[in-house]
């Protein structure tokens, strides 16, 4: 059996359509003590002015009453106090003290915002606040792997997923820890503005826009002494996704045996070479569905799938909808 990996007039999404007319207002709610990294991610993604982009988010950082915004190394922040969410479209919780119960009026306002069509997002420990609303019951969620046990114990009706960087369901999204905040933020931007704008933001962040939600949070390993050994094969594979790619070819480009390459790949990437190739092909298919009018058969060939049926099968398995449905929702006019 061959080792070659053959992965056998559109409308805007509601949020993209709205953003053609006006910006969405985002409340970034911050308790104390401050988690500087997650707050910094939120500010960089949604608050930083981007005059080159039309109708960018109108985001505000709001301190919760009674919370002192102090961080590590003696840092102290000031922010306007939160009073109401009535004028906001979306809410982001970049972090939350995991043992703390929220005030009932905050819970009520979050529930009301969601019921009127707003979106709720959390980074890292922020899921502990969203879980208190009851809106996560029965849903798959993510948070930092360190908080897994406490989250499951405190909120047994939700389903924790440790094999993902973020989850986005029914206008509610939550990310795993630390750097996964950037992955979720870029996914939100991609859904709202398309992959080209998300790529612009990612370049500003000096970050890759390619990490998908469905992969492991971390791999328990030391930093590689030879980080470039795999890089050449990965770069080559991305440039040749339209072609059949054998794992043996990738191993040869690294001057490794197939067995050594498989082992090192799993240690470094947290998945097999074939799984990684499939994820890259699906990501490229998503990009083309958003940015072009190529029909499904030639699009499948351009991304290395054997045919349109194979693309549809894997696309629906990964994203829960067909390529055509995805294009109707996310392709910008």
Automatic annotation (TrEMBL):
It comes from the Bacteria. Transmembrane segments: none annotated. The keyword Protein biosynthesis does not apply. InterPro entries: Class_I_gatase-like, DJ-1/PfpI, Homeodomain-like_sf, HTH_AraC, INH-QAR. SMART domains: HTH_ARAC. One of its GO terms (molecular function) is sequence-specific DNA binding. Residues 231-329 form the HTH araC/xylS-type domain. Keywords: Transcription, Transcription regulation. This is AraC family transcriptional activator FtrA.
């Amino acid at each position: 059996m061959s080792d070659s990996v053959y992965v056998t007039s559109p409308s805007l999404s509601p949020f993209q359509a709205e953003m053609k007319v006006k910006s969405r207002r985002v409340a970034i709610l911050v308790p104390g003590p401050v988690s500087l990294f997650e707050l910094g991610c939120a500010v960089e993604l949604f608050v930083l002015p981007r005059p080159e982009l039309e109708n960018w988010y109108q985001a505000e950082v709001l301190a919760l009453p009674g919370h002192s915004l102090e961080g590590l190394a003696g840092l102290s922040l000031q922010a306007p106090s939160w009073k109401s969410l009535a004028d906001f479209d979306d809410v982001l919780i970049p972090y939350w003290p995991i043992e703390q119960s929220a005030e009932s009026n905050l819970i009520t306002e979050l529930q009301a915002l969601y019921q009127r069509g707003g979106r709720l997002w959390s980074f890292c420990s922020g899921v502990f606040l969203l879980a208190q609303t009851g809106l996560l019951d029965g849903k798959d969620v993510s948070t930092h792997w360190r908080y897994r046990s406490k989250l499951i114990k405190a909120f047994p009706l939700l389903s924790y997923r440790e094999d993902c960087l973020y989850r986005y369901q029914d206008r509610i999204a939550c990310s795993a820890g630390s750097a996964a905040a950037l992955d979720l933020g870029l996914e939100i931007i991609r859904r709202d503005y398309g992959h080209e704008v998300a790529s612009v933001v990612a370049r500003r962040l000096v970050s890759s826009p390619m990490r998908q939600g469905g992969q492991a949070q971390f791999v328990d390993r030391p930093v590689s002494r030879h980080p470039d050994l795999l890089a050449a094969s990965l770069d080559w594979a991305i440039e040749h996704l339209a072609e059949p790619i054998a794992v043996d070819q990738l191993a040869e480009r690294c001057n490794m045996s197939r067995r050594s390459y498989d082992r090192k790949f799993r240690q470094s990437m947290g998945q097999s070479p074939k799984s990684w190739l499939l994820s890259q092909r699906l990501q490229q298919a998503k990009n083309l569905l958003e940015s072009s009018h190529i029909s499904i058969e030639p699009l499948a060939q351009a991304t290395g799938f054997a045919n349109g049926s194979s693309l549809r099968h894997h696309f629906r398995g990964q994203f829960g909808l067909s390529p055509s449905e995805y294009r109707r929702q996310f392709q910008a006019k």
